[in-house]
Every structure is written in C-alpha cells, then in structure tokens.
Specification:
Blueprint lengths: L18 H9 E2 L4 E2 L4 H31 L21 E4 L12 E4 L7 H11 L12 E2 L12 E2 L24 E6 L22 H13 L6 E8 L2 H6 L3 E4 L3 E3 L15 E6 L7 E9 L13 E7 L5 E5 L8 E4 L6 E4 L5 E2 L4
Parallel strand pairs: 5-6
Antiparallel strand pairs: 1-2, 3-7, 4-14, 7-11, 8-10, 8-12, 9-11, 12-13, 13-14, 15-16, 16-17
C-alpha cells in the first residue's frame, strides 16, 4: 500500500520596510513592474475607458446644445409681447444716471455755475447721446424718416442729434452750468410692439392733462400726420410741486414719433428720445415731477410704475438742484436753515445732504 506523502506549505512574511520605503514601492514596484499599484495594461484599460466615457458625454452635450439652438431665433425672441415676461407696456427711463459708486440711488445733484460740480452729469449725457450723432448713426440700415416717410422693411430711422435744438446740447453743457438742466426720456425696447396713438383730438382720455389736450388739438389743425405720436406729459405730482416746477420744454417733439416703432432688432436701431429742460425750477424746495406716456395700448399704474416716471427735484441752495428717479417712492423733506440761506435736503435714507455736495 502506497503511503501518501504530505507536503507542508509555509507563508513567508514580507520584509519589514519603513514608511518611506513602502511609499517608494507604491510608486514603482520593480518586482511586479507596477506603477501606483497598477500594471501598464491596467493603466491602459482605465485610460481607454475614460477617453470613451468623456468623448460620449461631450458628444451628447453637443448634440443636446445643437437641438436647443434649433429652437432659438438669433434675431427675435420666441415669446413676444403678451406671451412673454416683458409684456406690452414699455417702461419709461431717463438719463443721466448717477455714478456706479451710488448705484442704489438715482439722485441727480449738482451746483451750477463755472465752479459747479455738474461735469459728471454732462459727461453721462454725452456718452448716452454719442450713438445718436449723425456720423455714428449712419450705414446701410439707416434711413431718414418723417411723419410722411416711414422706414422700409429692414431699415431703421436715424435720430439726428441736431433735432434737440440749441439748448440741450453739449455745447451748452445741457443747461447745467446755467441752472436750467436737461434730462432725456426714453422708452424701453419691446420687440414687435407698436403704439396705438391718440390721433383723434375728439377721442382723448379724460385723465389726460388739459394742456396736452390743447396741444394735440393745435397739432391736428396744423398737420394730422403729426398726431401719430406717443405723447409725453410731465408735471408736478401735487399742487405745491406744480407751483414750483416752472416751465418745462420738450424737444424735438412732445413725445415719441410712431415711425420709430416697432423695434425689430435691426442693427443700429436707436430708440427715440425726448429732451426735457427745466427753465426755472424754484430754489430751496423739493419738487416731485411725474412723467407719463400716452397711447391707447399703454396702461398707467402708479403703484406698479407702468408708463409712469416720477422724479424729485430740489435746489438745496440757489446754485444746486436735485432730481430723483421713478423707482423711489418715499418722499424727501427739505429743512431750511437760517445761516447764509443754506438749504439742507434729507434723503430717503434719513441722511442730510450738505449744500456743497
């Protein structure tokens, strides 16, 4: 009977190494030819796997992006007017605006005269009006327009800066040096929106200012074509404001001509503007100024600031003026000091603005 031989196997303990030696073996094991615990073939498989994975992800993302761009139009929004978030009621804005350091406020404050601090405001107006220069606003898409000549399809009306007259110009420093400041009104752009003007003097809203109604009737007798306008009215918000605001002039028109609409994103399009000049605002009092635009398809809502711009102006001294934007609703208080005819205006934050500001 053959006896079975038993074989004994023994495990040999790995050699003892220090932490540094173990780290070096992990980096490169010469016995197994492994780098960072993996052989060359293992690393090649991992590299190939991730190349294929990320290539697939990149291709999938590019395909989804391509499908998304097929639903977009580069020249017009998908949802327009009442179907979009912007709606059909254009907002009314103004220039100049304060510096970026005072972005939360829309206060215009300056001291007129040759030594006044009005240069920021005139500079801001120059920057805003530069595209309206006839040299800057010229090209294949521009055409001259009038109430008798509307732009053709694919064309836009240029706005000659000379239409602003001789007062609200950079040569006259927009009236700031003489204490008769100009501000510029503009309508926000809404793609495809067209105004429905009040072009019948016998069909005007009851809440339209009487002075504007008389102006429209006068224009109707001169040229009915000029009634195709989004009318603008600016006046004091209450009786005291209307007493102190003084005369206000509008150039070049008493509104925005309808031939500038609709906005179709044609290259070089310039929004029509109206320049307001305060001829002689009362010094030392706060004046709340409310501006409205008038058309049959424009809704007025003071609470929601629809088609309404409310400004506040005041002269802190005989040589300064203050204008605030429509976005601010709190009223300001004017405190008259007895010393040297100084006027101190309390801002909406409760902070006194000194007369030399």
């Amino acid at each position: 009977m053959t006896e079975k031989k038993s074989e004994d196997y023994f495990a040999v303990a790995p050699p003892k190494r220090s932490g540094w030696e173990n780290f070096k073996v992990f980096l490169w094991n010469g016995e197994t030819s492994e780098f960072l615990g993996r052989s060359a073939s293992s690393w090649a498989k991992i590299f190939l796997f991730y190349v294929v994975l990320y290539a697939f992800l990149a291709a999938f993302f590019a395909a989804m992006l391509l499908v998304f761009f097929q639903t977009l139009d580069l020249y017009q929004p998908r949802w327009q007017n009442a179907n979009g978030l912007i709606g059909t009621n254009p907002g009314l804005g103004f220039r100049p605006m304060p510096s970026s350091a005072n972005v939360e406020s829309t206060l215009i404050h300056f001291k007129h005269g040759t030594a006044g601090n009005w240069k920021h405001w005139t500079s801001e107006l120059e920057k805003f009006l530069y595209p309206y220069d006839t040299v800057a606003s010229s090209g294949e898409y521009f055409t001259s327009c009038s109430f008798d000549k509307w732009p053709a399809e694919g064309k836009v009306c240029n706005f000659d800066i000379k239409l602003l007259g001789t007062q609200c110009t950079k040569e006259e420093l927009f009236g700031y040096e003489r204490g008769r400041p100009c501000i510029v009104l503009k309508l926000n752009r809404i793609f495809g929106w067209s105004p429905e003007p009040y072009d019948d003097p016998n069909d005007l809203p009851a809440n339209m200012p009487t002075e504007l109604k008389e102006y429209i009737k006068t224009k109707a007798n001169e040229n009915k074509e000029q009634l195709k306008m989004i009318w603008v009215s600016c006046d004091g918000e209450n009786s005291a404001d209307r007493e102190h605001i003084g005369n206000v002039t509008y150039t070049p028109f008493r509104g925005f001509p309808a031939y500038y609409f609709p906005y179709k994103n044609v290259p070089g399009y310039l929004s029509p503007i109206v320049a307001l000049q305060f001829q002689k605002p009362e010094a030392g009092v706060l004046i709340n100024i409310e501006c409205k635009v008038w058309a049959k398809n424009i809704i007025h809502d003071r609470q929601r600031r629809l088609a309404v711009g409310t400004y506040e102006s005041s002269s802190q001294t005989l040589h300064s003026m203050l204008i605030r934007t429509p976005a601010l609703s709190r009223k300001q208080n004017v405190i008259k000091a007895d010393d040297q005819n100084e006027r101190v205006c309390i801002s909406r934050y409760g902070k006194a603005i000194p007369s030399g500001f």
